[in-house]
Design a protein that fits this description.
Blueprint (H helix, E strand, L loop, with lengths): L3 H9 L19 H7 E5 L4 H4 L4 E7 L2 H13 L4 H12 L3 H7 L4 E4 L4 H7 L3 H12 L8 E3 L11 H8 L3 E3 L2 H4 L4 E8 L3 H12 L5 E8 L4
Parallel strand pairs: 2-7, 3-6, 6-7
Antiparallel strand pairs: 1-2, 4-5
Helix pairs in contact: 4-5, 5-8
Bound molecules: zinc ion.
């Protein structure tokens, strides 16, 4: 069936690449050159304390230019249409051998939680929004098994010791029996210091989880 709304939309706003704005065939598509620049799955280097709780950590894209703007506008301005571009990128990532290898043996994914007031204000959990289509296509269930039990300050405002204090007792698990021995994909939008994901992994492991693998949409940590 012809979707008149989509036809009208394509006529008024022809689909374009989010970076170079070249016209593309379908909404949400990137031109091949810009997709190749943004989509670069890379393993994140982990410190020894991080390695104690995280089996591995990967970012699928590079946190700069278009991808950085897509994430920021989605997260802070609620620009949900950016989701189409992100889904295209994640769908391409899902076909890459290194990503398939990482996902092998995962039982389910758990998003890094937001404090409930913050999620209500934002209207969504960005990790969940970003990865839900990707996880469904990979047949990986998404389970909200972590809670943020108190509001925390943004990590970029804080020094090393303040960061540790900021995250102390900030997360708790729900449904311990569901976690026991399971291999978990811990998901978030970006990886900066990794402190939040490490603390979430520590809480999951303490509750009996098997291996925890961190995956984010983007990071600027290149090895
Ligand atoms: Zn382009």
């Amino acid at each position: 069936m012809v979707n008149l709304w989509e036809m009208l939309l394509d006529f008024l706003f022809p689909p374009h690449c989010p970076l170079c704005h070249a016209y593309v065939e379908t909404r949400g598509a990137w031109c091949p050159k810009c997709l190749a620049e943004a989509l670069q799955p890379h393993q994140l280097s982990l410190s020894v304390p991080m390695q104690a709780v995280l089996a591995d950590a990967w970012a699928f894209g590079v946190y700069k230019d278009s991808l950085r703007d897509l994430i920021r506008h989605l997260k802070y301005q609620g620009k949900r249409s950016n989701q189409f571009y992100i889904e295209t990128l994640l769908s391409a990532a899902g076909k890459m051998p290194q990503v398939q290898k990482l996902l092998f043996g995962i039982d389910f994914a758990v998003p890094v939680p937001l404090y409930p007031d913050k999620e209500k204000q934002r209207g969504f959990n960005q990790a969940e929004l970003i990865f839900s289509g990707f996880l469904a296509s990979q047949h990986i269930p998404l389970r909200r098994l972590l809670l943020r039990t108190r509001a925390t300050r943004p990590m970029y405002e804080l020094s090393g010791s303040e960061r540790e204090k900021n995250l102390k007792n900030a997360f708790a698990v729900t449904g311990i029996e569901a976690l026991t021995g399971k291999n978990i994909l811990l998901i978030d939008d970006i990886f900066t210091t990794g402190a939040t994901m490490t603390e979430c992994a520590r809480v999951l492991r303490s509750a009996g989880a098997g291996a925890v693998y961190a995956v984010v949409l983007a990071s600027d940590h290149r090895i």
